Amino acid sequence: MTDTTDSGPGGYAAARLRLLQEGSRSGPPRRSALADLTDQWLAALLTGGVESAGIGRGAALVAVGGYGRGELSPRSDLDVLLLHDGTADRSALAALADHIWYPVWDMGLALDHSVRTPDEARGTAAEDLKVQLGLLDARHIAGDAALTADLRTTVLADWRAQAPRRLPELHALCQERGERHGELQFLLEPDLKEARGGLRDATALRAIAASWLADAPREGLDEARGRLLDARDALHLSTGRATERLALQEQDQVAGVLGLLDADALLRQIYESARIISYASDVTWREVERVLRARSATRPRLRALLGGRAGRGGGSGPDAGERSPLAEGVVEQDGEVVLARTARPDRDPVLPLRAAAAAAQAGLPLSLHAVRRLSAAARPLPVPWPPEAREQLITLLGAGESTVGVWEALEAEGLITRLLPDWERVRCRPQRNPVHRWTVDRHLVETAVRASALSRRVGRPDLLLVAALLHDIGKGWPGDHSVAGETIARDVAARIGFDRADVAVLATLVRHHLLLVETATRRDLDDPATVRSVAETVGGATTLELLHALTEADALATGPAAWSAWRGSLVADLVKRVSAVLAGEPADDWSTPQRTTAEQERLAVEAWRTGGPVLALHARSEALAPGDAGGPEWAPEEGTTGPEPIGVELLIAVPDQPGVLPTAAGVLALHRLTVRAADLRAVELPKELDTAGAADGVLLLSWRVAAEYGSLPQAARLRNDLLRALDGSLDIVARLAEREAAYRKYPRRHGVHAPPPRVTVAPGSSQLATVIEVRAQDAPGLLHRIGRALEATGVAVRSAHVSTLGANAVDAFYVTDASGAPLKPLHATEIAQQVEQTLTGTPGQ
After folding, report:
1. What gap in Å lies between CA 735 and CA 741, rounded to an integer?
2. Which tens digits make up the pLDDT trace of 817-830?
3. Is 344 in contact with 373 (CB distance < 8 Å)?
4. What are phi and psi of 105, to 5 degrees?
């Protein structure tokens, strides 16, 4: 133990600094040494204060909370109670408290302090649950040890006596905190203390154990809690602040302090720890509820027995010994799924899957004892699996929401990786894309949950559910996860007993699980090459049907930004076209003029007559089915505040001239409209019109837009700004550059650096145009800058397809040369390079 003879802040500060700078001591030894050092300092302060205040015996200094547990992180608060027996006068106590508290404040340390008698401490604990939890870890520092011992004894006795009332209160507090801060095991910027599965939950488990009503499963729990404390220590040392939130920009540095490879390794370790604590919490709180339920059911029966009414059914609750069969070797008992007395896991290798499937179908948790018995005694399944094992897996996956809890129970005891060895690669693996809500493994289970709701749409729901479970299994391997996943899916499908044809279908689904959504949102569906390419890849109607359902389930399980009725309508439109081709119908020829609606023709004629742009705005509900027409025209009056439509269709007809696409995109950006989709094409005017004066014809731009925030602009205001931008009186470039400069000055998230834009050519995507694909960080005016960059190269943009997921934009542009032909390969590569160089430069330049 470090010794310091100087009780002042200077001596303690120097010793504290030396301790924190010691590279040889970290983790529990450093936390314990820091607590010991602080004890010595505070004890000396108490001794000096007692002497100066003239107080004899009857005062003690007590550490509570984390300090009471001897777990001081570099920037932890000091939770201290000055305990006294009530014999000293108030002025002497105030002088003693000042003698202790002021040096702590002078050090700049956070201090949570109180001055109480034992009775006052008990009274405050009875009223405030958080105070009572802190006192459960009370530890004597200095002074009258008998005072501290008496307080500890009475506080623990109170806690055990009040547990039936206070534990439900604690459970509600934990649930509310989890809802507010989220689940630690899935957060990209987790709060190590407050999030579900964090340090607060670990402390709650200690409190439950102290109540003697239940105890948490101990295996791995102390280690998990220790890893979270180590991460918090490293976070405090890295930032120099008392923070619990592990921000993105700090993760690599924290990983370095802990000796880990990188931020992903850090997050995976934190997720694994949080998962252990969360599972232990679930199991323990179920046990608490069971015990309290049993107690409440026992009291009426006991009263009936004492009153001479034995045998007349004094209680309303079920008999704790009642067991209801669910499946072979599996029964329900007291709200949980347990193994039957005759079950022989050592002779029944399918029993783990049968028990899991029965639990999920019944919507009940698997008991901890049952899962551990299965883990310890179950025999491995033969390869390939027997048909019953495969059917039980499919039943488990098809149970819906209840699948998640059962799957987590199996995973907590290592059964999942025993059944599916490739699962280890994706277990607790973080996903850096902010669109994703879950780790890779949980996303796969969530996709199966979503797929179960779509199983009536397909003829082979078994293949849909297994594909959902495996579609991202390749993310644990280097390279394209779809390519790696195809190989793994073939192996897993054969292992679990599918025949050769089904294995081929599953491999195709995993390899191409992104095909439909990427094609629908980034390619021109009116190009027959697009539809034929998808049809050739899919190969058959059954696979297309499964892929359609898998696409929706995958997107819904990803997060709210990954799916909408708009995306669904695009995918459904693509599926309809591909189905027609697979049925033998010819793909529509893009070279034939597209049908012009009456409204489009009206707008084109008016644009030709006036020589300027003409606009129409239509509200579009996300509930519209594919192919439905837009709603009523949207032209809100100034100052109106009604509900806004989620999506708006904007049609712009304008005489053909250079720069139409970037100019229109720039005007939309100025009005803070987010572009979801864009299309540009020439419109044929009625033959009776004399078009000699409009040699360049009329262009029609179709946009799907949404307001970034605030109200949608009026069509008249958009038209006026577009007219000014086209004639040069509105400097779009300068206006957007000003806004971009403001964004750079006040970034939304400090320290997060986006990767540079990437522009590529998508070969073979079209027979009549060249597809240039741009991937970049989404930002105001991005489409305007891309349009200007393309215009500068001299190519003609036939159509644009915009897709935004979270902060990432993926935009595809169908371009031709001046003669309307696709670009030569070398020329296309040069164009892509020029656009990328332009976008990498200063925006707006």
Report:
1. 10
2. 988 899 999 999 99
3. no
4. -65, -40
Structure tokens at 143: 């002074």
Tally of CA atoms within 13 A in the half-sphere of 310 that contains its CB = 4
Asked if residue 42 lies in contact with residue 61, where contact means CB atoms within 8 angstroms, the answer is yes
DSSP 683: E
**Predicted local distance difference test score (pLDDT) of residue 619:** 63
Question: What pLDDT does residue 699 have?
Answer: 84
Q: What percent of the chain has pLDDT over 90?
A: 56
Nearest 5 degrees, angle CA 535-CA 540-CA 543? 100
Residue reference for tokens 């199996």: 410
| Both tokens assigned to 604 | 């084109």
Rg (CA), the chain: 34
Angle 205-206-211 (CA atoms, 0-180°, nearest 5)? 95
Tokens of 407: 């799957």
For residue 816, what are the β-bridge partners? 796
The four Cα atoms 54, 58, 64, 69 give a dihedral, to 10 degrees, of 110
Task: For residues 196 and 281, give the distance between their C-alpha atoms in angstroms, rounded to a whole number.
Answer: 9
Phi first, then psi, for residue 611 (nearest 5°) are 75, 10
CA torsion, ordered 124, 128, 132, 135, to nearest 10 deg: -60
Amino acid at 160: R
Distance CA 202, CA 216 (A): 10
> Which is it for the CA torsion 496, 499, 500, 506, positive or negative?
negative
What is the value of pTM for the model shown? 0.78
- Phi, psi (rounded to 5 degrees) for 812: -115, 135
Distance CA 219, CA 210 (A): 18
Angle at 404 between CA 381 and CA 263, to 5 degrees: 95
pLDDT tens-digit map of 491-512: 999 999 999 999 999 999 999 9
User: For residues 432 and 409, what is the distance between their CA atoms, to the nearest angstrom?
Assistant: 26
Angle, helices 351-362/402-412, rounded to nearest 10 degrees:
150
Residues 283-324 have pLDDT tens digits of 999 999 999 988 887 666 555 555 544 443 333 344 445 789
Q: Which helix (H) or strand (E) holds 372?
A: helix 368-377
Give me the DSSP letters along 377-409.
Answer: HPPPPPSSPPHHHHHHHHHHHTTTTHHHHHHHH
The Cα–Cα gap between 726 and 657 comes to: 9
Q: Per-residue pLDDT averaged across 421-438, rounded?
A: 89
Helix and strand element counts for the chain (H, E): 30, 15
630-638 mean pLDDT: 34
CB 437 within 8 A of CB 554: no
Angle (deg, nearest 10), helices 351-362 and 387-397:
30
Q: Provide DSSP, 39-94.
A: HHHHHHHHHHHHHHHT--SSEEEEE-HHHHTT---TT--EEEEEEE-S-S-HHHHH
Distance between terminal CA atoms of the chain?
A: 64
E strand or H helix at 615: strand 614-620
| pLDDT value for 696 | 59
What CA–CA distances, in Å, run from 514 to 471, 472, 617, 635? 9, 10, 32, 37
Which of 282, 283, 270 is closest to 185 using CA atoms? 270
d(CA 730, CA 670): 11
2 confidence band (pLDDT: 50, 70, 90): very low
Residues 6+ apart with CB under 8 A from 502: 460, 463, 493
Angle, helix 541-558 to helix 515-522, in steps of 10 degrees = 80
Average pLDDT over residues 574-583: 93
Residues 646 and 621 sit within 8 Å (Cβ to Cβ): yes
C-beta atoms surrounding 803 within 10 Å? 19
Average pLDDT over residues 519-535: 88
Q: How confident is the model at residue 748 (pLDDT cuts 50, 70, 90)?
A: very low
